[in-house]
Amino acid sequence: MQAVKSSRRRPSLKRAAVPAAAEPTQTVRRRLPPAERKMLIVEAAIAYFAEVGFEGQTRNLSTRLGVTNALLFRYFPTKEELVERVYQQMYLGRWGSDWEAALKDRAVPFEARLRRFYKSYLSVIYSYEWIRIFFFAGLRGVNINDRYISLLNSRIVQPICTEVRHAYGLPPPEQVPITAVESDAVWGLQGQILYIGIRRFIYNQHIADPEGIVDAAVDVFLSGIASVASAASGPSR
């Protein structure tokens, strides 16, 4: 049976490391083309917000860049616009273009699809910047978490619920809508994958085998999801 091929090259999870205290960002040179200068500002903002959170002031960011605050605001007139660009690049820009299709490819066994997706997903979120910005945004009330969680729900969590139903011969969502119990079970697995990054980049714990933890989490999920989905979608519900 042909395996699903990922269009994304995954970095080695075992070598990911928490950076030391951030050095001042390289000065933005004055003769850069506008598009390149703008990208450097965004990259500097990602590093800055990952280190200090969204309490950080743009004037401190401009100091790190070696430019005036006025020049920074020429490209991003408000802090909210800069944060939006960070979201676009860090979260939407790293979204796997093949994830949804691969999860729905029934030519591949469901278990194999699940393991492959979560290892690919972990390779994207398993970074200092991704994890820390996500949590700083939640603590500060920045509109990143709600949007990303909504994206996960519609494109990952609900499709996995549908594929669980199909894999175990249960009624499709068109006949019996997906229940909150089923969705929560998948969110539980999603949370276990996220927690690998939390342990590494929030708690600074050493993670020897991230992909091994993914396999264990999937094993636990698969050991119980059939009975959960069956009870939720059956006539006794």
Task: Describe the protein's architecture and organization.
This protein is mainly α and 237 residues long. It contains ten helices and no strands. The protein has helices spanning 34-52, 58-65, 69-75, 79-92, 99-103, 110-125, 128-140, 145-167, 180-201, 210-233.
In short:
The protein is 64% helix and 0% strand.
Care to count the β-strands? 0
Q: Could you report the average pLDDT, rounded to the nearest whole number?
A: 89
Number of helices: 10
The succession of helices and strands, N to C, reads HHHHHHHHHH
Instruction: Please outline the major beta sheet.
Output: none
Sheet/helix structural class: mainly alpha
Shape: elongated
User: How many angstroms does the end-to-end distance come to?
Assistant: 36 Å
Low-confidence segments, given as residue ranges, are 1-11, 21-29
Strand content: under 5%
Describe this protein with a few key phrases.
mainly alpha; 10 helices; disordered N terminus
Secondary structure blueprint with pairings:
Layout lengths: L33 H19 L5 H8 L3 H7 L3 H14 L6 H5 L6 H16 L2 H13 L4 H23 L12 H22 L8 H24 L4
